[in-house]
UniProtKB/TrEMBL annotation:
Example of a GO MF term: metal ion binding
Cofactor binding note of this UniProt entry: The heme is bound between the two transmembrane subunits.
Protein name per Swiss-Prot or TrEMBL: Succinate dehydrogenase cytochrome b556 subunit
One cellular component term from this protein's GO annotations in UniProt: membrane
Family label: Belongs to the cytochrome b560 family.
Residues noted as binding heme in the record, renumbered to the chain: 62
CDD domains in the record: SQR_TypeC_SdhC
Signal sequence coordinates: none
Listed cofactors: heme
Keywords: Heme, Iron, Membrane, Metal-binding, Transmembrane, Transmembrane helix
Species in which this protein is naturally found: Novosphingobium sediminicola
NCBIfam families: succ_dehyd_cytB
Regions crossing the membrane: 46-64, 85-103
Length: 108
């Protein structure tokens, strides 16, 4: 049940925070090079990175949980052991995907 609630919460967070960030990005892009440079400077700070990492974790966790829900919809994974395993693995896989994503981004 907690994974289902987390699935809904991460979907909402990814939608609202991602949309807000997209609108800020588009606004600064339209405002000119100085505003865009300020946006990039803020995104590169520690708190900007925390927001970006949080949004990306929300997207990855929501995607992994969506796959779990899809498998349940087609009738797979209803056994208690299997369901408990997937419930425990969903947040872990989301964290691992986020870490791999940011490792690739920061390695450039």
């Amino acid at each position: 049940m907690a994974v289902s609630i987390l699935h809904r919460a991460t979907g909402s967070a990814a939608s609202f925070a991602g949309l807000g960030l997209l609108l800020c990005w588009l606004g600064t892009l339209a405002a000119g090079p100085d505003a865009y440079a300020l946006f990039l400077a803020q995104a590169g700070t520690w708190y900007g990175r925390i927001v970006l990492i949080g949004i990306s974790w929300s997207v990855f966790n929501h995607a992994v949980s969506g796959v779990r829900h899809f498998l349940l919809d087609i009738g797979a994974g209803f056994e208690v052991k299997s369901n408990n395993l997937w419930s425990a693995l969903c947040p872990v896989i989301g964290i691992l995907l986020t870490a791999a994503f940011w490792a690739c981004l920061l390695a450039r």
